[in-house]
Give the backbone structure.
Amino acid sequence: MIEKKHILLVGPSLGRGGAERVMADMSIFLSNLGYEVTLITAYDDIDYSYKGNIISLGLKKKSLLLFFTSINAFFIWGKLVSQLSPDVIIDARARRNPFRELMIHLFIYRNKCRKIFICHRSDLEIYFPKPRIIFRSIYNKMSKIVSVSRDIENKLNSLGLVNTQTIHNGFDFNKINMIKNKNHSFEEKYVLCVGRMDDNVKQFKHAIECYNNSTLHSKNIHLVILGQGEQKHSLGAYARLSSHSKKIHFMGFVSNPYAYFNKAEFLIMTSEFEGFPMVLIESLACGTPVVSYDCPTGPREIIQHEKNGLLVKANDKQMMTDAMNRMVQDNGLYNKLRANAKNSVAHLTMDKIAAEWQSLIEGI
């Protein structure tokens, strides 16, 4: 039995996004390992199961009073850290604003507990603000900077950070197996896209354009898109301009995406950049092969080209269209990819990832 330590997880929310789902999963496996877990989130959104005590700072996106509520949240956050006196803080926030980050390190993270920062995405500007000469010194004093892919760790090293470690995102095979066979309302054959629509990172227009230019619609294979966000309306309007719009379906946020992963012909990912994309892992865990841009970072660490999926040059829409056609035209290749899908991510089970986190926490 390990000594019970108090771990504070800090992040934006437990709603909708992949990084938010990872934080929720962390709260569960850390609690199951015997740690006391408290989550502090900026926003109230909760879409994922979690364990531990959760405290929201109560911020509201696009509120006219956001500036003032943010100042209030800052003081509440500082008071909570002081009162809770955690042994370890694991911080998964975006860290864009240099002034705010300096204030956090001077007034909230001034206590002597161990601190771990997580980098979920390859665009390190959101984690490593300028002037970097100052933040390089601050970050190198952290107990560890954890990246979710080896390519992100290499980028961190190139910026002068030395206290780095890669721990991939994991998934719960048991959870997937329990709910992936549940029925959903869509009955036609389909390929799948999944992601938030708050910005253009997922580049859903690429997926829609490539689908329109492919042979999939002629074979009565539809395009299903799961996700929610500010751009959903404009993406729907873009899709309606297509002559194949009746075969493009926006299903919104779905609490059980695994049922869709499980029954899809394959998953399409056209992101501009990623970290270590959970959608690829979850699709493969359901036995569904994937076609993805080779964007920075993560896909090449998950996809074994022509073994469990197809890896396409980043932002090359013609190559993506060709790859989608190949998936429905080459039955031998497709069957091989589907047969290999699940075992290709067996090394990313939640138990293994939990053990890596436990080793880190106990070793720092």
